[in-house]
Target: Iron-dependent peroxidase
Amino acid sequence: MTAPTRSYTVFGTIVPSSLCFASISRRAVTIRQRDYGSSPLKLSNSQERPLSTTTLCQQQMSMASHRVPIAPQSVDAPLTQHATFLVLAVRSPAEPQTRQAIRSTLAGMSGRTKTVAMRDLGGRFSCVVGIGSDLWDHLFSSSAEVKKPAELRPFRPIRGGKHAAPATRGDLLFHIRAERRDLCFEFERQLLDSLGRGADSVVEVVDETVGFRYFDARDLLGFVDGTANPLGAALPASVLVAASDISSGSNDPCSDPDYVAASTAVGGSYVVVQKYVHDMARWNALNTEQQESVIGRTKLTNEELDDVTETTQSKAHKTLATIVDEQTGEEHDILRDNMPFGSPGTGELGTYFIGYSRRLWVVEKMLERMFVGVPPGMHDRILDYSMPLTGTTFFAPSASFLANLS
Model:
């Protein structure tokens, strides 16, 4: 018998803990409730409160399916017409007043996103916030109950034989999305005002990139982007840190302080961002067949092409961006929500890459394969026409975690 379903519009606010993200559509934000009986679940006030780490641990251990019983941020929000990628550096992060201002802003994310989203319920507004490794150390160094996510570390620069991926600074990432540009603008304005302006601001804007949807989700190179994104139940399994990812040597993990502290990472996601600019003159000098061999897909129909076996100095993007476990044969997916950006007047045109993953090493391995090559020297051919200007790593904790910062 099919379990009853209910759909909820997600604005980046805290979703009641009784909801299970067993079925999340990439392009239609719906949440399927579990069937705990013949009648739908009733959402009490207590169910709407963020879970403590102890309660979270107990629920995780008792659920055979190991689903995440807490509310992640709106990582799975559908592809929208507009997006803003805002990277901030925190000034004097060791100062207590600065840390308090940042914690207060993060704790208020739910209320601020709701305030903007309510202006147009059809605008599908959402925002995901990521915290950098260095800032995490400053914010939670005095708290034994908040353990740093196991893989969170600064972006590792990569240097291949011909191309390099630089590491750039950034303490906070705000991935802002909506169907309307004014909603993104209003949220960013309110956010920066809350952190102070001018000399009084506790942050500095490192990068502000405004993206837009280009035709049928294509990049400015003319190809459909994000085809390999996970869908349905595979989405949270690929993107969200699960309880099973947290190791513990105790027979009763819930009694282990290290386990309870580490469980603050559950429901979160590692995020890597890079800002690529394209050499459109060189790219447009290629014919369609040559462009397709670079990407590994057909341009018109987006069909996957067979790998080229002949010896060359580079490989197709599709081939090197696919990570397969050599022992199990399992393919590790990440969620890409890339967007084109640019100005024809200045000639700066590019793609803003943003990848969400349950495991940071998967994204790092993908980038290493692209820039170094497999074997070394056989780099990703797209890098001959597209150059990264930035590279930063963050961790997007659950919405429940952020709310508890207050």
User: Anything to note?
Assistant: The mean pLDDT is 81. The first strand starts at residue 82 and ends at 90.
